[in-house]
Amino acid sequence: MGILERKLKTFYRKTKKGNIIKIVREHYLRDDVWCGLQACTVCEGDIRPLQILSEVKSNIIPFPHHILIDSNVAIHQIDLLCQDSIRNVIIPQTVIQEVKHHSLPVYKRLRDLIDDSSKHFYVFCNEHHGDCFAEREKGETVNDCNDRSIRLTCWWYKQHFQLFKQNVVILTNDMANKKKAEDLELDAFTVLEYVKGLKNAHELLDFVAVADDTDGNDAPDVSQKFMYSPHWSITDIRTALKKGKIKQGVLKTSTKNYLEANVMVEGFDKSVLIQGRENLNRALHDDHVAIEIFPKEKWSSPSTLVIDQQKEEEEKAIDDDEEEKAAIAQEKAMLASSVGEGEKQPTGRVIGIAKRKWRQYCGILKKNVIAESNRHLFVPADKRIPFIRIETRQAEALQSKRILVAIDSWPRDSKNPKGHFVRVIGEIGDKETENEVILLEHDCPHTKFSEAVLKCLPKMPWVITPKDEAERKDLRDLNICSVDPIGCTDIDDALHCRLLPNGNYEVGVHIADVSHFIRPHTAIDQEAQNRSTTVYLTNRRIDMVPDLLSSNLCSLRGEVDRFAFSVIWEITPETEILSSRFYKTIIRSRGELSYEQAQQKIDDPSMNDDLTNSLRNLNMLAKKLKKKRLSDGALVLASMEVKFHVDPDTDTVVDIVAKQHLETMSMVEEFMLLANVTAAETTVKEFPDCAMLRRHPAPPPSNFEPLLLAAESQNIKIDVTSNKTLADSLENAESDKNPFFNNMLRIMTTRCMMQAVYFCSGTLEKQEFYHYGLATPCYTHFTSPIRRYADIIVHRLLAAIIEKDTTYPELLDPKKCSEYSQHINYRHKMAQYAGRASGVITAITNILRILIKRRKKVKKPEEWVLQAQNMEFEEEKTEDNLPKFQFNEKDLCVRCKDVELRPFDEVRIQVCVDSSDIQHEKVVTRLVFPYIEGFSVKSLKASSRRYPRIATQKQKIKV
């Protein structure tokens, strides 16, 4: 037995040029597609995950049974399917295809369930089974045809399983599909019906997603009063977009006011402002929305209020419709009265959702004012997301936990979206829990590497073969060493320098050859591409690649042989580059040094070994390279970065210090920059349309306004005409009164900069390649492939150039390269935000203890000088009796009573932790000097009184 029938599937496709092409594909039907049941004696095949069942687990289904699901269940009930007690599930091929088309994240989770042998999930190829294939009939929609195929699959299984005294039920939330299944005498249930009938229903009901009654169009119902306008259908949105009647863009909700958002659309220089619950019309942050622009007379300015829904709804009952309506009316009045006096911008309202960006949200359960109710409000950690209604029977146990919740729907008659409980993350305040919240909220993949990924790793013990030695340049005789921060285990770069007979220097930068182990299209490559970057939290690292590579085989450790991708230059003593070549190499590092150890070697005159002399020559050349770079206009900026000293035994922070800068740090940086520039020039020359590059756009003049005003207040002139004039201005900006002045100016300049981004060389003109901060026409990343996927792509291009590897279609496709770069940019940005958030939490957890400890040691008052531009004046809801502050934009000063504060003024403060919002604890400063009656606080001495953890309502200072 085998092929029963050969069918031709014909469809038509419209090309980009508007031509219509006919596509014909062959489709084969068979009679030997196996069922997947372990004890089946009829079907052949090795894949048999479905068990023979004998236990009755339901109160409404009186026989043991397998479950067959439709596409809607697979997409919307994935959290339920993940529960341990849901097993022996049949997933038709039609369902898998629909899920993949609808949502890749859900598809990945479903594939993980299928790969988990303990779950007993089985994909049945109904599309190629003669009895289950449904050919689309005239006038039948694609969805109806797919539903019919799923019903036929269930019918076939029911007949087939009778031979082995097994049964199957179909789960669907589509009532029409359920009715047709029952007409075929199939056992069909909605998900809620099925779960309620299980003997362990109390364990599973919380995970059932609420059915979305308004999926698709919002049907008007004149018999019911709604809070929101109906959403337009996708068809109506597309028609209106073509006619230019509406606009489309991504909604970005304000972090300070959850009732206000902006949408960037074509045809407008400024973003369109969306204000108020009704105009937002159930759209959430990052949703792709269709908006209607209001007439110019209705345009407005952003609100000046900071509106926190946690404080707004602190005492409200969640089930009181009249109170909800009153609250909405109050919000409208509040927004109307708080319109700013700034320049007006276009305003509008959301009329439809083109694409939802709902995800799982971290947060806490709001304590319910209604006793013994199963309905609760979930408070997301992301303040841009509204409270979510959920039903749970374990509220008491969840009160002290951070939990994960998913949104299911947002009906027109509900003030808040509806969702369901997913899982407990952990105890509030626990270090590991807070780390996971950071990773989840910033969309940083951090699960364990799958079995498929681990199977791609080389077998241990790993050895270099004679074939490897023949194909690579052997540099094991060179005095190569790495220089990194203390405790670094993912060492991806090393250097060497030696004097040539002609008086020039041979300098090499050697980078871990990660691309040798990560081959295109493998599971490990796909995982690295998805993660795109390593995420560094204060006390945890989430690797882009498995530890065997990141900390072992690809880490350039001392005194072990490793594969490297090397770039070697011949450089004159005046740092003129005479030649550069890339090689696949074998190296053996003579030492894995820290920055401090390398600096000690360079500074110790008694040390004259070859490795030390190599470091001294590298340092000498680096200084000259940097001087040349700065003369070209490269910027030297500063930041408020701090370093946490962690006790490895207790895993606790023992000190917080400003990052120290050593010459060896600059030495390594200069040669990494040179290697990156060389890689960029080489790849763009050979692959002008598909090179992965990195650009840093010049900031618009408006970005520099705060810097210029601050400098002007100190009679300092800053020229921002170009990066060269800006660099010269910063170099010459000094203040006799403030030794920290120049560093503070550079910090302010950093905040004026644009974000550097990856891009495909074929998508921009050459003049747009320029890197403003580094003052180089062309730049990329080549030096950290262990922790950046962009570097792996660059390595693959370079390997093809030196004929050590072959290309593949995606590598040379500008469209794919552009997609990769956008994804990498997103992951890189989220990883940065996650790292900063981790630092904030670590500071909040440890700052009081450390400051008290440190204050006992302070002898010099300048150690406590505050850089005043970090203080903020922010209008929050304050007590009426607090003093009022006035900001004079012309003089750039803040006045309160007889006190004036200007940028760079020295003040004395108290540092405290504000714990009024348990999800958003923050370090706050309280003014001690100059003293403002009713605002400042009296000085506290550490010896007589501990610093308190406070819940302050006072204004924060920002100059």
UniProtKB/TrEMBL annotation:
GO function terms (MF aspect): 3'-5'-RNA exonuclease activity; endonuclease activity; enzyme binding; RNA binding
Q: What is its main location?
A: cytoplasm
Q: Where found in the cell?
A: Cytoplasm; Nucleus
**Cofactor(s) the protein requires to work:** Mg(2+)
Q: Which UniProt keywords apply?
A: Cytoplasm, Exonuclease, Exosome, Hydrolase, Nuclease, Nucleus, RNA-binding, rRNA processing
Q: Which residues form the RNB domain?
A: 472-804
The record's listing under Pfam families reads:
OB_Dis3, PIN_4, RNB, Rrp44_CSD1
Q: Which PANTHER family match?
A: EXOSOME COMPLEX EXONUCLEASE RRP44, RIBONUCLEASE
Its protein name is Protein DIS3 homolog
